[in-house]
Design brief:
The chain is built from ten helices and no strands. Helix 1 runs antiparallel to helix 3, helix 1 runs parallel beside helix 4 and helix 3 runs antiparallel to helix 4. The model has no long low-confidence stretch (mean pLDDT 90).
Length: 292
């Protein structure tokens, strides 16, 4: 753990995430004493859309007023993710055919926000706007948009496909497991964790083999893989389930080989022995081959 005090950027992100989420807290509270369908209908109507637009404008103005430069960039991203998380929860509680998409919205926004927050906790020296992983890669963006397009098209053409609640629930469990495993891996690794594969060993860098790392060598990748595929199972997207599984598997196969070259260079026989005893965690991925 990097330290007991959360860095300024981390505190700003928490405040801004709550600010974005706050707009949805009010209708969620109101729904406790009435039907949430009424709240959902209001927010999706003209007046609701105007209220949302006004809130976003006021929230953005508030952030511009109190934060400058890089801190504003952190704040506006965290606020957006908090707002999306709240929207997802509201849709999830509504008795509509979009319930599972609400689960997806909350899962996606929380994943990206928690990547930043946990990085701020464990390794603030590596913290940057990239820690949100919102601009992970062009391929990642294309994959996300493709899943939205598939969900919408299939919902219009094959609506019954999107009402397999048991399948969506399986996807939700996969998402929760993957998210939990990845964040556990990050917290266990502490300052040794970095979103970018390191080519030079830092003085504080040690080989972590305890906790979830005693079960598999790359628990953060296993978690991300499970979370990624789970989002598409949740949406009942058959095409993207297969595409995400294949694309993620290929990405992590190459990533693990690249990372293990550095780890063997850093730790030598210590890592080779650890590699021999503990599996990678992903199916049919052995990692870099080393001579016997």
């Amino acid at each position: 753990m990097a330290g007991s005090k959360l860095v300024l950027e981390g505190r700003v992100s928490i405040t801004s995430f709550i600010l974005g989420f706050a707009f949805m807290i009010i209708p969620l509270i109101v729904s406790l004493g009435s039907h949430i369908e009424w709240v959902f209908d209001y927010l999706t109507g003209i007046r609701g859309k105007i209220a949302i637009a006004l809130y976003i404008a006021v929230a953005n103005g508030f952030l511009l007023l109190i934060y400058k430069g890089p801190l504003y960039q952190v704040a506006v991203r965290a606020c957006f993710l908090g707002f999306t998380f709240g929207c997802g929860l509201l849709i999830s509680f509504g008795q509509t055919t979009w319930t599972h998409f609400g689960w997806y919205m909350s899962s996606l926004s929380f994943f990206h926000y928690s990547e930043y927050l946990v990085t701020a906790i464990i390794n603030p020296r590596s913290l940057s706007l990239d820690s949100f992983l919102l601009n992970h890669s062009v391929e990642y963006t294309v994959a996300a948009v493709s899943s939205w397009v598939e969900f919408t098209v299939e919902k219009l053409l094959i609506p019954d496909l999107k009402q397999l609640r048991w399948l969506s629930f399986v996807g939700l469990l996969m998402v929760l497991f993957g998210e939990g495993l990845r964040k556990s891996a990050m917290l266990t690794a502490g300052s040794n964790f970095n979103h970018i594969v390191q080519n030079e060993k830092a003085q504080s860098h040690v080989l972590v083999t305890s906790g979830v790392y005693s079960c598999c060598r790359h628990p953060s990748y296993v978690g991300w893989f499970c979370w990624s595929v789970g989002t598409q199972v949740m949406l009942c997207n058959p095409v993207c389930v297969l595409a995400y599984a294949l694309a993620s598997w290929r990405f992590f196969r190459d990533r693990i080989e690249e990372e293990e070259i550095s780890l063997i260079h850093f730790f030598g026989d210590e890592y080779v022995e650890y590699k021999r005893k503990v599996r990678s965690g992903l199916p049919f991925i052995q990692g870099i081959r080393v001579g016997s």
